[in-house]
């Protein structure tokens, strides 16, 4: 895979992750807020935050 196509594929994967997050939780992917909330959020909120960050 040539470098431009690798960048396009990476961008598509990140875009798919953002769309999936919006569809499943109704939240917009603000990475800094998700990262901060992964440590300070209520226990029920931490799972999807960690899953999203690990997926990136």
Structural account:
The structure is a single chain. This protein has helices at 3-25, 31-40, 43-55. The protein has 56 residues and is mainly alpha-helical. The chain has one domain. α2 packs across α3. The two termini are 20 Å apart. The relative contact order is 0.13.
Attribute tags:
elongated; mainly alpha; 0% strand; 56 residues; single chain
Topology:
Elements: H1 3-25, H2 31-40, H3 43-55
Helix pairs in contact: 2-3
Kindly provide the radius of gyration, computed on alpha-carbon positions and rounded to a whole number of angstroms.
Answer: 13 Å
Number of domains: 1
Number of helices: 3
Mean pLDDT score: 85
- Coarse structural class: mainly alpha
């Amino acid at each position: 895979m040539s470098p431009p196509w690798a960048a396009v594929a990476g961008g598509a994967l990140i875009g798919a992750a953002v769309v999936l997050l919006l569809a499943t939780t109704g939240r917009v992917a603000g990475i800094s807020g998700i990262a901060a909330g992964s440590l300070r959020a209520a226990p029920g909120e931490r799972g999807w935050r960690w899953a999203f960050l690990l997926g990136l």
